[in-house]
Structure formats: structure tokens, C-alpha cells
Amino acid sequence: SQFLNEAIYEEYKDAKTVYGFRLFDILSYDVSYRDTIGIRATDEECYYTFIKLFDPVISNFCSSYPRVEKNVSYVYPSNVVSLVGVTGTLDAHVVSCRVRVVRSLQGFPFAWVCSPNERREIQNVVKQALDSLKGVEYYKLARISSKSRDTLITKHGIFRNQKLDCDDTWSSGRGIWRDGTSNAIALVNEREHIIFLTQEFGGDLCHAFYRMRDLVERTELALEKTGHKYMHSVVYGFLVSSPQEVGTGLRISVNVKLPHL
């Protein structure tokens, strides 16, 4: 990381979070995967224990939004413009819209450093919340059938960089939830505790966004009934392991046709 200089190293080399994670641990993810920005939080306390490292990284990726004392979300459906009918021909070129939101549960390390027992505990909590939503299915990776696996691959509901027929140790405590239409999916204990995905064929981004917000909020209410809640910081917003995604945890993508490329 360009922000890890000798002075920062000397200050933090012996520091550790309440879960016992050290500076080496937040750097080890990049060594293993080589597709990150250089650091990844191991738990909520990382953002405060190693604040002189994480704060510049977050500010660098969010340079258009200066650091404030209180994070305010402006993510409302009224701020999302539908692509349907824009310029008369754009909709014909839009294949699909996809909305992705990540969330973490307070009181646990982040998913990538959780033990199998911690993952199973998180899975039980999240599954209970998702089970309260009507018309859904939940697949535990350790017990998934070949038919269900093929369906999830088709619906892009497979875990990134992993196969669903992997060993029991890795698959333990991980699972995939989907609604009856397969247009909404939640990955449990992938790289984050929960990754919500909604997809809409065509250019109706608003519809995908509305469904996402409804899913995230209903899950949050169900979690609160069992004494759990999303990890949140007054300064940074929603916290996840990747510093790039703190705040809203939101990512939107649009797939378009390029027939002449």
C-alpha cells in the first residue's frame, strides 16, 4: 500500500484489535488474492486501531466526498434514473441492470478471517432472517445438490473464485439464498458476511434498485428482532472488510449490447 510508510509501520507493528488481529493480518489478504488495493480489514475495530492507515486509503478512493464527522446516505430510489426509453433507442441496447450491496454483522470478524464455527454462527443468524422472507430458498454449500449448483451457476449465484463442490472445511458456514424468480440472491460468508444481488433484464434500473432496498431493509428488520444488526460507523457509514466499499456498500452495473465491436 502506498500509504504504509516506515512511520506508520513503526506505530502499528505491535498494535492489535480486540480479536487479536495485527498489521500483518490486514496485509495478508493482498498476498493471497492479488486483486485488492493492498489492505483489507479483519474486523470493525481495524478502522479505528489502524486509523492512520485506513483513513487515507478510504479518502483516496472517495476523493469526491471529503471526510465528514457524520456519514449521511443519499441512496434513495428517487435519485436513481431509469434507463427505459432514454434517448429512444438506449433501452434496446441494455441487456440487464444489476445492483449489489454488501453488509456485515456487528459482533463478528469479517468473513474472510472467520473460523468455520464463526461462519456457521453467522450463517444461522442470517439464514433465520432470510427464512422470515416469503417465497425463498437457501442452499448450504456443504449440502448443495448438483442440480441446484447448476441452477445457481446459470443465475450467476456462485461464489467468486471458488467451486461449489469444494472441501467441507471451506464450504462449512457458507450458503446462497435466492428468491423464487432468481432475480434476487444473497451470498452468505463469501468475501463479506452478506452480499445482496438483484438483477433486472432490460433497462429498468429503478426496479432493480427498489427490490434491492426492500430486500436489504427487510433483512435488517428481521436481524434486529433477533438482537443483531448491520455493522455501521457514524463517520464511515456501513462497514465491510474492503475499504473501497465502506459507506453505502453499493455497486451498480449495466450490461449493454455492442453488436459492432
Automatic annotation (TrEMBL):
<keyword id="KW-0547">Nucleotide-binding</keyword>
<dbReference type="InterPro" id="IPR022413">
    <property type="entry name" value="ATP-guanido_PTrfase_N"/>
</dbReference>
<keyword id="KW-0418">Kinase</keyword>
<dbReference type="InterPro" id="IPR000749">
    <property type="entry name" value="ATP-guanido_PTrfase"/>
</dbReference>
<dbReference type="Pfam" id="PF02807">
    <property type="entry name" value="ATP-gua_PtransN"/>
</dbReference>
<dbReference type="InterPro" id="IPR036802">
    <property type="entry name" value="ATP-guanido_PTrfase_N_sf"/>
</dbReference>
<feature type="binding site">
    <location>
        <begin position="251"/>
        <end position="255"/>
    </location>
    <ligand>
        <name>ATP</name>
    </ligand>
</feature>
<feature type="binding site">
    <location>
        <begin position="96"/>
        <end position="100"/>
    </location>
    <ligand>
        <name>ATP</name>
    </ligand>
</feature>
<dbReference type="InterPro" id="IPR014746">
    <property type="entry name" value="Gln_synth/guanido_kin_cat_dom"/>
</dbReference>
<dbReference type="InterPro" id="IPR022414">
    <property type="entry name" value="ATP-guanido_PTrfase_cat"/>
</dbReference>
<comment type="similarity">
    <text>Belongs to the ATP:guanido phosphotransferase family.</text>
</comment>
<dbReference type="GO" id="GO:0005615">
    <property type="term" value="C:extracellular space"/>
</dbReference>
<dbReference type="GO" id="GO:0004111">
    <property type="term" value="F:creatine kinase activity"/>
</dbReference>
<keyword id="KW-0067">ATP-binding</keyword>
<dbReference type="Pfam" id="PF00217">
    <property type="entry name" value="ATP-gua_Ptrans"/>
</dbReference>
<feature type="domain" description="Phosphagen kinase C-terminal">
    <location>
        <begin position="93"/>
        <end position="261"/>
    </location>
</feature>
<protein>
    <recommendedName>
        <fullName>creatine kinase</fullName>
        <ecNumber>2.7.3.2</ecNumber>
    </recommendedName>
</protein>
<feature type="domain" description="Phosphagen kinase N-terminal">
    <location>
        <begin position="1"/>
        <end position="63"/>
    </location>
</feature>
<dbReference type="GO" id="GO:0005524">
    <property type="term" value="F:ATP binding"/>
</dbReference>
<keyword id="KW-0808">Transferase</keyword>
<feature type="binding site">
    <location>
        <position position="156"/>
    </location>
    <ligand>
        <name>ATP</name>
    </ligand>
</feature>
<dbReference type="GO" id="GO:0046314">
    <property type="term" value="P:phosphocreatine biosynthetic process"/>
</dbReference>
